[in-house]
């Protein structure tokens, strides 16, 4: 089972799942079984990564919602990955996507220029 499938399953079972740093918060506690704990431990890094990806995507979509005149929004996460900058971009009414850019090669100005010129579409 993939991380996204585990998250979807938990939500379908009315669990609330959050990533807090390197920890997973799952509620309600009375529904948590030993089998579920084993599954979560086995897939914990992938689940946390998926929840963080989802959180970044929701941030850029919220930026577009909050600014109806804006066509593009982006969020830069420099903390989640020790080697890469994760850049999340959303284009209104089209799509959202992420890029992992090596920190040693990351220069935000050319990327901002492409976004502002509308070349990232």
Description:
- Pfam families: TubC_N.
- This is TubC N-terminal docking domain-containing protein.
- With 121 residues, this protein is α+β, with helices and mostly antiparallel strands.
- It has one domain.
- It has 3 helices and 5 strands, in the order αββαβββα.
- The protein has a 3-stranded antiparallel sheet with strand order 3-4-5, covered by helices on one side.
- Strand 1 and strand 2 form a beta hairpin.
- Helix 1 crosses helix 2.
- The mean pLDDT is 91.
Strand order of the largest sheet: 3-4-5
- Strand-and-helix sequence, N→C? HEEHEEEH
Name the overall outline: elongated
Question: Which band does the percent of strand residues land in?
Answer: 25-35%
Helicity, as a percent range? 40-55%
InterPro entries: TubC_N, TubC_N_sf
Protein name: TubC N-terminal docking domain-containing protein
Domain TubC N-terminal docking: 5-52
Pfam families: TubC_N (PF18563)
Kindly summarize this structure in a few lines.
The chain has 121 residues and is α+β, with helices and mostly antiparallel strands. The chain contains three helices and five strands; from the N terminus they run αββαβββα.
